[in-house]
Design brief:
The complex is a heterotrimer of chains A (379), B (151) and C (289).
Chain A (H helix, E strand, L loop, with lengths): L10 E5 L3 H10 L3 E8 L2 E6 L10 E6 L2 E6 L16 H4 L3 E10 L2 E6 L7 E6 L1 H15 L6 H9 L1 E5 L10 H4 L11 E8 L2 E8 L2 H8 L4 E2 L2 H16 L10 H7 L4 H9 L5 H5 L6 E7 L5 E8 L9 E2 L2 E2 L4 H20 L9 H4 L7 H14 L1
Parallel strand pairs in A: 2-8, 8-9, 9-10
Antiparallel strand pairs in A: 1-11, 1-12, 2-3, 4-5, 6-7, 6-14, 10-11, 13-14, 15-16
Chain B lengths: L4 H6 L8 H8 L2 E6 L4 E3 L7 E7 L1 E8 L3 E9 L3 E2 L13 E4 L3 E7 H10 L1 H27 L5
Antiparallel strand pairs in B: 1-8, 2-7, 3-6, 3-8, 4-5, 4-7
Chain C lengths: L21 E12 L2 E8 L13 E6 L3 E6 L10 E6 L3 H7 L6 E8 L12 E7 L3 H13 L7 E7 L8 H8 L5 E6 L9 E2 L16 E6 L2 H13 L7 E4 L15 E2 L2 E2 L6 E3 H8 L5
Parallel strand pairs in C: 7-8, 7-11, 8-9, 9-10, 11-12
Antiparallel strand pairs in C: 1-2, 1-6, 2-5, 3-4, 3-6, 12-15, 13-14
The chains are: A alpha+beta (379), B alpha+beta (151), C alpha/beta (289).
Chain lengths: 379, 151, 289
């Protein structure tokens, strides 16, 4: 063990067997480990007991509307891109109880939900998803009002990022400036390297807590050669990314084209199922639901994820503001790539590609934007 | 002899009209007043005059057997009243009834038409203003049909 | 970032927990029209005075049924009584309608932007409302009348479908008797017993007296009514930045987090509901937006 304390920005190497030590160090600090694992033939984020739960030796094949798990020829831990889940399921859960109320005489008393905040360590967060968490931070923590439930979970979370050494089939983070290299927003960032018989992780320290945790894991300094190799692998990934989205002037582009015929065209394919919003790591819309027990003495308020592709999403007495599929698709896409900029000062898309993979009819956000952009060139 | 010209010039419908045109129109004009409840004109009557309202309020009504008088609209201060005079056979197609004490300038339409024929500049100026009144009442009528408070 | 900086606004009594509703007791109920009623509320446990600015709204909660956004209709100078005028059109508003004096409902707020009443000092004021639109503007009327000397001409233009649909009928009659502002009323249809204007509310705009260059107009009513009213006001020469409208959307959280009330780049609940027309002109014209 080295004598000097680790500091922010330090780069170390831990060998593959010591990944388990890292997970144990986090568990000992009271973190519940959440990471990629196989469940009923699908790749999900769920609780990990040890490295044995990681989908080691598996990879994913992704295309528009296609996701398939395949065995790899090697035994790397993080040899896949990502599944349909994103970390928002843990920071902004699909259902949250906000409070409950009890009748008292003519009135009632409100009891806030004071359930203990879970303390999560996220293992294997991709750089695009780090950006997605940062985007949700802006939405839920940095505006006029703060979401206290998100805030509590977010504050106590520990993030182990993993740099991408292979581009997923629908990824376009390189063009969004959100990957494939993690640059901020993590406690520790790993690059997994399998080089002949050598299997190890280059680890970058991103926070003081990250340094403290890593201190407890056997590590050695990273040589310049190892660092260079990791960089090259990430650069290769960027170079092999099959999709790109040109974001230059994208807000103005979309603001110019609210009446573009392309909206009608995409609406003829869109099923308005809302899969894209559920898999999107930045989508934050939620519905508020009030319920009572049968006796009418107790009431609860819940919120659950909502989907802007539902007709009800914009319902006011008398009808929906956006009855047509065209209007709802346009709302989703222009929110992600245009109005979000006015609202939060950043894009609402991080290029993870989930909405492309998990769209049952394979609608591709990059292709839709390109179609609108190219129609201007023809004019 | 006292002239009605200043009174004509003060009405929004005629504001800005050249004084020679006002002079011509004044020859066709007379001042009239209607007591509350008094009919200004009645459906089916021959339309001989149109009115520029100076004060008061007039209801435009259609009389129905079962519901009595239905008010379609009201006109008031500064408004133009009665355009049936302009189309043959020059008969009023609804009732106009004063709600409040109403003072107006009544124009003999055959006199006005004669002046407009003789001086097309006046005729054009008059028709331009008349078109605005028509367009505006059509616009308001359409809104009324939409039932904005129910929609 | 949003093009126009948000106007300063008071925060809810306890901004740390804007998601929690506070129990308020119903003191009085008054039927305004067949489907509309006005509630006077007081904090159930004698809590702090309730401060708001004209145009802001509260989320009202019927126990176990749900919550609805309702604008505040009382006098902003009265911090003891909270007044809401509600139309019973949905599950929640119908549940609230069933409540009687002494019973309790939940109040969360105040939320949203306000009518620029204090900001418009020195101007002529024109208020145009249709139907229920008078409810969110009544606090502005109170505030203008309380500081009457600070304004020029003040014209209130009120439209409704029939005389029976006019809100605050008695108060309108009192206002019409005042010398310090003019009240114009128009209904879409009426029988012969109605001795006032018949016609759409926009017909009254050409008659209002104001200096268009120094006038602030506040408009609230159904969407179509606001669109045509704004056109008439623009035609009279009022500048788009001096015309204010109040927008309506599905609102569930009231604090800009649930995403339902978006109108282009705006969250109506926190950037609105009151907007300067030049701020939302572009979105006003788009359909299904």
């Amino acid at each position: 063990m080295p004598q000097v304390a680790l500091a922010l920005g330090d780069k170390l190497v831990i060998t593959a067997p010591h990944l388990e030590d890292l997970l144990q160090a986090l568990q000992q600090r009271g973190f519940t480990l959440i990471g990629p694992t196989l469940h009923q033939g699908d790749l999900v984020y769920d609780e990990l007991a040890s490295v044995a739960d990681l989908p080691r030796g598996w990879t994913d094949e992704q295309e528009a509307g296609v996701f398939r798990l395949k065995p790899r020829e090697d035994q790397v831990f993080f040899g896949f891109a990502m599944g349909q889940h994103s970390w928002k399921a843990f920071l902004l859960p699909p259902r949250t109880k906000l409070w409950q109320a009890e009748r008292q005489g003519h009135g009632f008393e409100i009891v806030p939900n004071q359930a203990e905040t879970p303390k999560f360590a996220f293992i294997g967060v991709r750089p695009c998803d780090l950006h997605a968490i940062a985007v949700q931070d802006r939405v839920l923590l940095e505006g006029l009002y703060v979401d206290p439930f998100y805030q509590a979970r977010r504050r106590s979370a520990f993030i182990v990022a993993v740099n991408c050494t292979r581009a997923g089939g629908t990824c376009f983070c390189a063009s969004m400036g959100t990957g494939p290299q993690a640059t901020s927003g993590f406690d520790l960032a790993l690059t997994e390297i399998l080089h002949g018989p050598e299997h190890y992780f280059l680890v970058e320290v991103g926070s003081n807590q990250g340094a403290e945790v890593l201190q407890e894991v056997p590590h050695k300094p990273a040589t310049a050669a190892v660092q260079l190799q990791a960089e090259n692998m990430v650069q290769e990934t960027a170079a092999h990314m099959g999709r790109r989205l040109d974001t230059v002037g994208i807000k103005e582009l979309l603001y110019r084209h609210y009446d573009h015929p392309r909206w009608e065209e995409v609406a003829s394919r869109c099923l308005t199922c809302g899969n894209c919003t559920l898999v999107c790591p930045t989508c934050f819309c939620h519905a508020i639901e009030d319920v009572t027990d049968l006796s009418g003495q107790q009431a609860e308020r819940w919120r659950r994820w909502d989907v802007c592709f539902n007709v009800d999403h914009s319902y006011i007495h008398g009808g929906s503001i956006r009855p047509s599929a065209k209007a709802r698709y346009r709302q989703w896409l222009t929110h992600k790539l245009a109005t979000w900029i006015d609202q939060f000062g950043c894009l609402g898309c991080v290029g993870c590609g989930r909405c492309i993979t998990w769209c049952p009819v394979g609608i591709d956000i990059t292709a839709e934007v390109r179609a609108i952009r190219e129609s201007e060139k023809k004019e | 002899m006292e002239t009605l010209q200043p009174i004509l010039a003060a009405h929004p419908f005629l504001s800005g009209l050249e004084s020679k045109h006002l002079e011509n129109l004044a020859e066709c004009a007379s001042l009239v007043s209607f007591n509350p409840g008094q009919m200004v004109y009645t459906e089916g009557q021959t339309a001989t005059h149109f009115y520029l309202i100076r004060y008061g309020r007039v209801a435009l009504e259609i009389h129905t057997a079962r519901r009595g008088a239905i008010t379609l609209a009201t006109v008031g201060e500064g408004d133009f009243l009665g355009w049936s005079w302009i189309v043959s056979p020059h008969r009023w197609h609804i009732d106009a009834r004063a709600i409040d004490l109403t003072r107006a300038i009544a124009f003999d339409f055959s006199c006005v038409l004669r002046h407009c024929e003789a001086d097309h500049d006046l005729g054009y100026e008059f028709m331009k203003r008349f078109a605005v009144v028509l367009a505006q009442s059509l616009r308001f009528l359409k809104l009324q049909l939409v039932d904005v408070y129910g929609a | 970032m949003v093009p126009n900086a948000p106007v300063p606004r008071p925060h809810p009594a306890n901004p740390a927990v804007p998601m929690l509703t506070q129990p308020f007791q119903i003191r009085r109920v008054r039927q305004e029209t067949p489907d509309t009623f006005t509630l006077a509320l007081q904090p159930a446990w004698g809590a702090a005075p309730f401060c708001f600015l004209p145009g802001q709204f509260n989320m009202l909660y019927a126990f176990g049924v749900g919550e609805v956004p309702i604008s505040i209709s009382g006098d902003p100078a009265n911090t003891q009584t909270l007044v809401h005028t509600i139309r019973a059109v949905g599950t929640v508003t119908r549940a609230i309608q069933k409540l009687k004096p002494g019973q309790v409902l939940g109040v969360r707020g105040p939320f949203g932007s306000h009518w620029p009443v204090a900001e418009a000092a020195g101007h002529d004021m024109v208020i145009v409302v249709g139907g229920l639109g008078l409810a969110p503007l009544r606090p502005a009327i109170y505030q203008i009348l309380a500081h009457r000397a600070e304004y020029g001409n003040f014209e209130l233009i009120v439209g409704a479908r029939t005389p029976g649909d006019l809100l605050y009928y008695k108060e309108l009659e009192q206002w019409r008797g005042r010398f310090d502002f003019r009240v114009h009323v128009a209904v879409d249809s009426a029988g012969p017993e109605w001795r006032n204007n018949v016609g759409v509310v926009t017909t009254l705009i050409p008659r209002a007296r104001f200096d268009p260059w120094h006038t602030t107009a506040l408009v609230c009513g159904p969407g179509v009514m606001m669109r045509f009213t704004v056109q008439e006001l623009l035609q009279r020469g009022i500048k788009p930045e001096n015309i204010y409208v109040s927008m309506e959307r599905n609102m569930q959280c009231g604090i800009g987090l649930c995403g339902h009330c978006q109108l282009g780049p705006y969250f109506i609940c926190k950037d609105g509901p009151v907007f300067a027309f030049d701020q939302i002109e572009k979105w006003f014209a788009l359909r299904e937006i």
